[in-house]
Design a protein that fits this description.
about 260 residues, mainly alpha
Length: about 260
């Protein structure tokens, strides 16, 4: 009986050892699997992050290049507009300038989605200043067209008047107005009446011409004031765009190298 119990105990001990060993092996295997899975997930996440960073750099680079290309197109069209070109060529260049500015606005919006914020703000400032200048140019161009037409019409009217200010005889009469005897020797009553009527007519023409010349001068002054205001606004927007371009270019390199 004792031998049987001893053998049974020994068997149980062996069985427990086997089960314990198997359990330990299973736990170790499971723990190792978990560690491997965690390591694999980390590798996948790192690879995904790296691929996303690469993708973001490429997307940003494409958006930045597209934006600068559109701005260069605007600059080229504006440079061409400063040269002497015909009306049809000017209209085509204005249309091209507007299209390029619209592309700038579109690409600035794309940059706002891709970031970073510094580049987005610079692109927005550049495109807004450029578009504002185009609108100001169009508005000022229409204004100048109308005002110059008015000035040409006023000039034509003044040239047509070309008043023959026949005041020489009237001045001669005035020289002798204090010497009635001499005046009577020189002129009859009919002649004096004719001279007075003629002088009055000439002075009316001169007054009308003076009013037209004053209106012409006032219109010229208004045009000059408008031109000065336009140039100040235009120059300010050009400065904003150029300063923003410096920021834009400086921040591009960091954005491409360190996407966020």
């Amino acid at each position: 009986m004792t031998e049987f119990v001893t053998a049974l105990v020994a068997g149980l001990i062996g069985l427990i050892g086997t089960v314990t060993g198997a359990a330990a092996t299973a736990w170790a295997a499971k723990s190792g699997a978990k560690m491997n899975a965690k390591a694999m997930r980390g590798q996948v996440q790192d690879q995904a992050a790296s691929e996303h960073a690469h993708w973001l750099r490429q997307q940003r680079l494409a958006a930045y290049e597209g934006f600068l290309d559109a701005w260069d197109e605007c600059s080229r069209a504006r440079t061409e507009l400063t040269r002497s070109v015909g009306d049809s060529a000017r209209d085509a260049l204005r249309a091209e300038l507007s299209r390029s500015a619209s592309r700038m606005m579109e690409r600035a919006r794309r940059i706002s989605l891709l970031g970073p914020e510094e580049v987005s703000l610079a692109a927005e400032a550049i495109s807004k200043a450029t578009m504002d200048n185009i609108k100001k140019e169009d508005k000022y161009g229409q204004y100048i067209k109308v005002e110059l037409s008015k000035m040409r019409e006023q000039e034509r009217q003044m040239r047509e008047m070309s008043p023959n200010l026949q005041l020489a005889e009237f001045r001669e009469v005035l020289r002798h107005v204090d010497d009635l005897e001499r005046l009577q020797e020189l002129y009859s009553i009919d002649q004096l009446e004719r001279i007075l009527v003629q002088a009055e007519h000439s002075m009316s023409e001169a007054e009308e011409l003076r009013r037209k010349m004053e209106a012409f001068a006032n219109l010229g002054h208004e045009v000059n004031v408008a031109a000065k205001r336009f140039l100040e606004d235009f120059s300010r927007n050009i400065q904003i765009a150029e300063e923003s371009r410096v920021i834009f270019v400086q921040t591009i390199r960091n954005a491409i190298t360190h996407p966020s």
